[in-house]
Design a protein that fits this description.
With about 750 residues, this protein is an alpha+beta fold. About 60% of the residues lie in helices and about 10% in strands. The radius of gyration is 32 Å and the shape is elongated. The mean pLDDT is about 90. This is Exporter of the RND superfamily.
Length: about 750
């Protein structure tokens, strides 16, 4: 019988170090859910976008929408201008756009002049209705800075390069404080844009972590107490969870990885897996006490029964999680590394460090209460009898059911939509709709044009190509607003000719264009072209936010640019491109992860069972729940996005836990001389109780995540719980049925063996 070799003082010291040492590192955890933290740093789209940002402003902005019947009254316009001035004093703000700060080109006696749409000094000179008509008549304001129906005005806060989500939160708070100081808080109707979305995602992440980490821990410990009715399991469980979760978070800090909405799943996930491992140990202790073992002998017997299968479950679960590291999405990769480390650490804590401490402090009774885990026996007895008596029927019905529903998998849509991640009634969703209805879409795409020579973008032929593409894009339903240097040049040409509508066109001579640019003394032009006139952008606001629709729009852009642009080089940039290409990264990562997890777990199964047939049976049992998850996703229209892309690897990594314990129990009794049916019956009686209890605990903990108002997190929790329930049913019914059928059809077939 196995003896514990780790001295108690050493176990206690290591346990204390795991609990206390990570604390200072965890305090340095970086909270960041900004889009930049998700994309691969070396991806072509990311590198190109970085080069564009070196010359052009940030397109991830904060939009404030102000409305009311009297919004154009002079006192409100003055308040808005004061707000703009106040915000531009903020070190995090590069510029603030509004009707009192955006350029307007007007005719004067000797040519044209550049002033503001609403000159601040002239605000008292006109009435509200006059300013309303003036703004409505401006070429650029409607759809950008003013509602087309004149019901609202907007302020666009363009930040400097912000490092993380916390800085975006700081900017959003500064904006709201400035609005209140300007006396405009009652007129503030919406706060939207990518900065606002990032802030709401950060809030959701922090709130979910504050709620779900203690909630999942409490649920797990509560169920442990209900099943074993001992306070010792609560204390040991809480300490074990702390000794696993804290070092995993510390590893995240050491790796330089931020804490994102994706990696926020780590603490509740590790808490659930640690509780599951504890469940097997405590169930084995209970079984040992019922057999007459006491204290250290019971602990030694329990470790003999569960330590080896627990090691392989830790390895297979870690393998499933490590497959996430193949994803190009950085937070998913980070979750893979840290969660795999946490699972292996959980094995060390539960199976190596905890037993010596239990031997020192455990003096209680482990007999099962009828209302606790012992209450599962009647259900398991019925399931056991059904699985062994109706084996062929179970295999046939399972195969037919999966075959009939498998086509639903083809209905899964690979899609991500940042603005669908929250419910329809959520503030960011409502505010975004208000801004889109009043102004234009919030998803930005830039068509970037490059000329070979300095001043190459003063060539009328080059400018005509830009103009033709922009006019083509403006006709598409997805494009709400477009702006380029061509628009500015047309305004200069129009104003220079006394605002004659016939001259609101692109100048046809390069020397005239150069003259206009020399006279121009405004600011907004150089947000659209660099000062060498070698690179220019067409800024487009799209009213689609889903990655698939954006991708289709970008393909249409590329097709038009390919066919119509000859003089200039071109490329697409902006948040729209980055987000659309994320869809391709998700598909790539999903395929890599599924292949890797299947290969790694298959190899581990071969090593553990030493039989290809046994490995095939257990792999079939483990892969079937994945089919169920994908079938559910297809049937109910659940998207494959950043969160649900992790479900497969996580679910198979967890599901294999119960399979290994159950099949190991079967081989354990076979080695002791039991027949196939008897060994299955005894394994299901003993380990079935533990795997059922484990599934109950894990499902309860993952269902807690389903309460999140962040839809991907909720979907992750719900789908993982569904996968675990399916895995339990396959372990208790399908796997015994397959083994029974194989044993009858092929009596000499090796069904595996385990070491003594």
């Amino acid at each position: 019988m196995r003896r514990m070799t780790l001295p108690r003082w050493l176990a206690a010291t290591l346990f204390a170090l795991l609990l206390l040492a990570p604390g200072p590192l965890v305090l340095n955890l970086t909270f960041d859910n900004a889009p930049e933290s998700y994309f691969p740093k070396e991806a072509p789209a990311v590198l190109f976008d970085a080069s564009v940002r070196e010359e052009f402003p940030e397109e991830q902005v904060l939009v404030g929408l102000f409305g009311g019947e009297e919004i154009y009254e002079p006192e409100n316009l003055s308040a808005l201008h004061e707000l703009i001035q106040h915000l531009e004093e903020n070190r995090q703000v590069e510029r603030v756009l509004g009707v009192t700060s955006f350029d307007q080109i007007r005719a004067v006696d000797d040519g044209f002049t550049v002033e503001k749409i609403v000159p601040p000094g002239a605000i008292p000179e006109r009435s509200g209705s006059q300013w309303q008509e003036h703004v409505r008549a401006d070429r650029f304001a409607p759809g950008l800075l003013a509602a087309r129906d004149s019901s609202a005005l907007a302020i666009i806060v363009r930040p400097t390069e912000l490092e993380d989500s916390l800085q975006r939160l700081e900017l959003e708070r500064a904006f709201r404080e400035a609005v209140a100081e300007a006396g405009l808080d009652e007129r503030l109707q919406a706060v939207a844009g990518h900065v606002a979305l990032d802030v709401w995602q950060l809030r959701s992440m922090l709130r979910d972590s504050a709620v779900f980490i203690p909630a999942t821990t409490a649920v797990g410990l509560g169920l442990l107490f209900w099943m074993f009715r001992r306070w010792l399991v609560v204390v040991a469980g809480g300490a074990a969870i702390g000794a696993v979760v804290s070092p995993a978070l510390a590893l995240m800090v050491l790796l330089g990885h931020p804490y994102t909405l994706v990696t926020s799943i780590l603490p509740p996930l590790l808490a659930a897996l640690t509780v599951a491992m504890l469940m097997h140990l405590f169930n084995a202790l209970s079984h040992a006490h019922r057999r007459g073992y006491t204290e250290e002998s019971a602990l030694a017997y329990s470790l003999e029964r569960v330590s080896r299968p627990a090691l392989f479950t830790a390895l297979t679960t870690a393998a499933g999680l490590l497959s996430l590291t193949l994803s190009p999405i950085r937070p998913i990769e980070s979750l893979g590394y840290t969660a795999a480390f946490g699972v292996l650490l959980a094995y060390c804590v539960v199976m190596v460090l905890l037993p010596p401490l239990l031997a020192r402090f455990d003096r209680g009774n482990w007999s099962l209460p009828r209302r606790g885990i012992g209450g599962l026996d009647a259900i398991l007895k019925a399931a056991r009898g059904f699985a062994l008596r109706r084996a062929g029927w179970i295999v046939a019905v399972s195969a037919l059911a999966i075959a009939a529903t498998a086509p639903l998998i083809t209905k899964i849509e690979v899609e991500s939509d940042l603005y669908e991640f929250f419910p329809a009634g959520h503030p960011i969703t409502q505010d975004t709709r208000k801004v889109e209805d009043a102004l234009s879409g919030v998803m930005v795409v830039e068509a970037v044009f490059d000329a070979e020579a300095i001043d190459g973008l003063q060539d009328p032929a080059a400018l005509q190509e830009i103009r033709d593409f922009q006019r083509w894009a403006e006709q598409r339903e997805e494009v709400d607003y477009a702006l380029s240097m061509v628009d500015m040049l047309e305004e200069m040409h129009w104003a220079f000719h006394d605002e004659d509508p016939e001259f609101r066109t692109l100048p046809g001579r390069q020397d005239l264009i150069a003259q206009y640019l020399f006279v121009y003394d405004g600011r907004d032009l150089y947000d659209l072209v660099n000062r060498d006139f070698t690179r220019a952008i067409v800024l487009m606001n799209l009213n689609v936010t889903g990655a698939r629709e954006i991708g289709q729009t970008l393909e249409a852009f590329r097709g038009e640019l390919d066919s119509s642009v000859e003089v200039l080089d071109w490329e697409l940039s902006g948040m729209g491109r980055l987000f659309a290409e994320q869809e391709e990264l998700l598909i790539e990562g999903q395929l890599r992860s599924l292949i890797a997890v299947a290969v790694m777990i298959s190899v581990l199964m071969l090593v553990l069972w030493r039989s290809a047939a046994a490995a095939s049976v257990t792999m079939l049992t483990n892969l079937s729940p994945l089919l169920v998850i994908f079938i559910v996703m297809g049937a109910f229209g659940v998207w494959l996005d950043m969160a649900t892309a992790m479900v497969a690897s996580v679910a198979i990594g967890i599901a294999v836990d119960d399979t290994i314990h159950t099949y190991h129990g079967f081989l354990f009794y076979r080695r002791r001389g039991s027949s196939v049916v008897a060994a299955l019956a005894r394994a299901l009686q003993h380990t079935g109780r533990a795997v059922t209890a484990t599934t109950i605990v894990l499902c309860a903990q993952f269902l807690v995540l389903a309460a999140s108002d962040f839809q991907p997190t909720a979907a992750f929790g719900l789908l993982t719980a569904i996968g675990l329930v399916a895995a339990l049913l396959f372990d208790l019914l399908l796997m015994p049925a397959i083994v029974t059928v194989l044993a009858k059809r092929f009596p000499r077939l090796s069904l595996g063996r385990v070491s003594a």
